[in-house]
Amino acid sequence: MSEKKIPEFSANWSAEEQGKWGLVVDQDLCTGCQACVTACAMENNIPFVGEEDAAYGRAMHWIRIERFWEGVYPEVKATPFQPVMCQQCGAAPCEPVCPVFASVHSQAEQLNIQVYNRCVGTRYCANNCPYVARTFNWRDYERPEPLPNQLNPDVTVRRRGIMEKCTFCVQRIKRAEDRAKSEGREVYDGEVEPACVQACPAEALTFGRLDDPESAVSKKARSGRGVKLLEDLGTLPHVTYLKGGA
Amino acid sequence: MSATHAHETDHELEHLRREHLMLDPKPRGEMNRMIMEAMHTTSWRFRLTFAFLVLVVLVCLFGVWGYMIAEGLGVAGVTVPIYWGIFLVNTVFWIGISHAGTFVSALLRVFKAEYRRPFTRAAELMTTFGLVQAGLSIFFHMGRVWLSYWLFPYPNERQLWPNFHSPLSWDFLAINTYLMASTMYLFLPLIPDLAMARDRSTGWRKVFYRILSLGFRGTEGEWAHLRIAMNIFAFAILPVMFSVHTIVSWDFAAAMRPGWSSTIFGPYFVVGALQSGLSAVAMVLVVVRGTMKNMKYFIRPEVFDALGKLMLVISMAWAYFFFNDYMVQWYGGDKFTDALLHFHEEGPLGWMWFAMLILNVAVPWLTLWNKKVRRTPWAIFAIGLGVNVAMWFERYIIVPISLTINRMPFTWREHVPGVEIPLGIGTLAFFILLYMAASKLVPLVPVWEVQEGQLAHSVRKVGKEVVVSVADME
User: Fold this and answer.
1) Taking the model in full, what pTM does it have?
2) Which residues of B make CB contacts under 8 Å with A?
3) Are A132 and B81 a contacting pair at CB < 8 A?
């Protein structure tokens, strides 16, 4: 008769300065080709919302390419493209506001996790995300044949009424970790690539371990060109943007 | 000489009686009969309106809601980045309406304002029925409403609890607390009147009142217990009212968004709730007085006079908090907040912002100082309607309009309401429907409270002066 131990929940919203997994976006290399957007949609079973909903701003993408310009036509100067996805904040504003713990922090991977089957759809997390990185399933979107054959078996297909967002392709992270564990080694740098990183033809995206000072991603993140989006909010994002290079 | 004095005194007495319900007593039997008659009389207009409202509720509320549950929230107007739309506007609006009901009743009871006696019940009913609409609007808003019970902290095998860090969890608990407290507060003073109705009814009504009046016979001991219970609730409900609307404001104030993260939102929302709720009480009383039998005796211009003064004071308080909130946000100098404040006034819905200020501040200030206006029921109704429209605009500006502007300019977008409109109309119809049903099922005027007040009041002549005195009943 062993006593059943139930682990106690401890809410720890405090900052983790460094983080585990990180992404670097080189805006000087980004061509705005949207390959990352497409690859992300394929990898993560993101539905097509149709013309009407897309025109109304409900297009479901976990990553979007923001483009801006300066000046007035004809003296228009384009500024670098800005791909925006979930910044996997160390102190994420989306987490404490969820009334049912559907938006939680993974202590193991130090990522923001969205628990689809716990979400009741209050959309508070989306309101509180300063990066507007979250998307909502406004309807059950149609997936005509043969599209269901393309679905990724590693990723849940979401139904109407729930929130979702970029996971840093956590299914790929887990697969790499499992493989490394079975081979008795650590995950090596560059072994894990989210779909967007894999698809980027300009190699503007780099993914890897931030807690490894020798990894490509942490070297780039430390470079002088690195900035974080809305850094003054203190959300401690794990995505670094590089721009202003030659 | 003395004859003229006597004449003047008589005149004054006559005037006092006409003016104040408390100084114009009727025999208990007659008053009970008047109330029973008001409950039993239904005109064809009442039946027609009732049938129409039933239709509206069935189609606009349950029909459209069912359609939305089946289709998903895509049929509503909410989108990126306006994740919260008119559903939450309506939620805050109805919570605001409901707050004033119990607040007016409890505050005036605690401070022993005598003019409260005929209309406390009408105000309390508004609370319960308003909260029903607020709750419904929250359920409309949820993506997966069939799982809304997950917000309750109930024991379950998965050891999952609601997140007590979330303002929405506090909100859910606060609204439930208020619903239960205000329903009990409505029920307690109802018991003697239900017992009165029980003794004067036959058929199914007799059964209905017998069950609800809990065997109240009016003994000294029963009254003593009832008074203690009512007193506890009257005092306890006031801080609960303040806390609930403050917590509603935290849904916004605790979020990190330009225009929302404002420390003054708590009291600003409380005053806003009183602003709309008081006006709604006045509007309901105008309708009740105009449409129900024998109500002109109970609800006299003195009631509108007093409520008009309260409305004026609350309007001033609202203007102060609005200015304070605006000033602090503007002075903060955050560029996104600045863009938002400009969007409020110059955006495509800038007219709403100006209409809010005109109907909430300018109109009450320019009219309610005048005693003649305050004593004219239709004028009070019109001003109250304006204030309620303005307060709905205020919530619309706080929710969807403020959500249009965020810190990622690439995502800025305006929103077009969808099924929010029929569902909003449905909640309004449901509120009126519940109220109409209640007006025929429970005594809308707390008879025992009026009778008690009339017993306590007396008019005496001291020398040449007419003196009104009130005995302390407790």
Assistant:
1) 0.91
2) 71-75, 78-81, 83-84, 141-145, 147-148, 150-151, 159-163, 165-169, 172, 251, 254-257, 403, 406-411, 413, 416
3) yes
